[in-house]
Structures are given as structure tokens and as C-alpha cells.
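Q: Sequence in, structure out?
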Amino acid sequence: DFRIGLIHGHQIVPWGDGGSLLHWQRKLDCDILVYGHLHKDSVIELEGKFFINPGSATGAYQPWITEKVPSFMLMAVQGSSVVLYVYEEKGGKAEVVMSEFKKESSSSSTAHATSSSSSSAMGDMNSNSSSSMNNSSSSSHSTSNGSASSSIHH
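A: Exactly. Output:
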């Protein structure tokens, strides 16, 4: 089972900082923290936890990013394994990077991540990719600073 935490990302100061990401991961008591705000995708593993930022599906403008790269992610959770597919549009083509995150047994605090990539025509982005959230429950709460957060249990 994985606990997945979800926050907007403006709470992570400085933006994208590993220590701040770990703080929010601990606060939400999750194995995977999904955050945003930066409009740039990233996949990070820290201290056996997984931190993912799907970026911006439209490649939204940000003054500190010179290249707009539309991106989104699909996450497939199965048992103690998560496969993450990161889609980026570059030059009219979809580039797909796959990462796998395996949760160790509860007696171990480490995890393993592997990745591979492929490229396809932009039209292939609409293929039959999906993720299963069967037997999932979710909960939401507000944090002390007024921001909303969610946790999904699979």
C-alpha cells in the first residue's frame, strides 16, 4: 500500500527544495508526494520517498524558464510498485520516460527507482494508457497555513 500526498507546491520554500519536500512528506505521512506550482516536471527520490511534479499540460509561461515544455504524468500503482510515465512534448513529438518506484517491506525504509525513456509521434499520446485506482480512498484537510492538501490511500 502507498500513501500519496497532494499539495499545490507554493508551500515548498525555496521552491523544489529537497528539505522542504521532505518536511511536507513527513507532515502528510505519505510515500509519494505530488506537488506543482513550478510548471516544470520533475521526479525525485529522497530518503526512500518519491516526489513528483507533473509540470504543466499546456507548457504555461514562467519568466524563469526559457523553454516551454508541456508535460503530464500517469501513475500506475500495483502492490508495492508504482510505474510513472512522464510525457513531454518537444518539437511536436511526445517523449515518454518511465520510472518505477518499489516500496520496500515495512521493516526497511529504502526504495528503489529505475527509469527508461522512449519517443513517439505526438498523435500517439492518446493511446490507451491508464492507471488503476481500484480500492482507493481519499481524504482532504486544510493545513495550519490555510492551504488544502489531500492524501490518497491505495
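The helical segments are 18-28.
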